[in-house]
Amino acid sequence: xxxxxxxxxxxxxxxxxxxxxxxxxxxxxxxxxxxxxxxxxxxxxxxxxxxxxxxxxxxxxxxxxxxxxxxxxxxxxxxxxxxxxxxxxxxxxxxxxxxxxxxxxxxxxxxxxxxxxxxxxxxxxxxxxxxxxxxxxxxxxxxxxxxxxxxxxxxxxxxxxxxxxxxxxxxxxxxxxxxxxxxxxxxxxxxxxxxxxxxxxxxxxxxxxxxxxxxxxxxxxxxxxxxxxxxxxxxxxxxxxxxxxxxxxxxxxxxxxxxxxxxxxxxxxxxxxxxxxxxxxxxxxxxxxxxxxxxxxxxxxxxxxxxxxxxxxxxxxxxxxxxxxxxx
Length: 328
Fold this sequence. Notes:
The chain is an alpha+beta fold. It has helices at 3-26, 83-94, 106-111, 216-226, 237-240, 289-296, 320-327; strands spanning 51-55, 61-67, 70-73, 79-81, 114-115, 118-119, 121-127, 130-137, 146-150, 157-159, 186-191, 194-199, 202-205, 233-235, 250-256, 261-268, 273-278, 284-288. It has 7 helices and 18 strands. The protein is elongated. The protein starts with a helix and ends with a helix.
């Protein structure tokens, strides 16, 4: 090929490339939805979100709804959700960037499971009645990465996200610490047969007899366990409420500083768990047996300091010289 023909061919290829770039920029191709790689993918403000809906591949769905300063599961007994967990996911979604497209075709959307009718997760964010984020999440191309596609857009992206952060089971979002009470907020805690009060920076038994003292460590351990009950799930009231017609296996009350008392009642169920009913919430919750049985082992006597060792005999009685004289 002559030099002249080579130059002509190169020039033709350059013109074609320039033409393609111009066509992509001006022709309205949906692949240009990606703008710049660092542009936010969804572009919403986490604090503005009032409802988060996650749908799974079998159309299973979880709804998380803002309530006051926290979040609830409206379709799961309106139980409290983990605010920390919801906030973390919203921050992750808000931080996703446009990046570069992996593919743009409808066939690719199905292959990577980010199509409207074939996906691993469909996440919708609402601020009131307005949708502020709509994302399809699919297969994983690598560690801590996943394919995603913004609803109404063709580009399929690889973003830093995981389906484990978007579970559709209510238990995975439930606030398991909803009954936790900070120890510094407690004035007293009462069990059958005894009361512990917070005095002089320590927990002490009320109504001690002369010479009795409280085992500070044992008392502190008991308060820590009673104030930090964690639950496993929320149970259907119609199935477990009848259990409370009998006397509870364990009952205690926590008095808060400044007033107000919270009652805890626990009954044994058929299985390795107890059912908890706490006076501040209209919920029946499952608690593992180990937590309850560790509380059942404690009584007033076990919270008393052990008696001091008997005083040694008088020194004169132990004098070896006198003992020797006595033997003569």
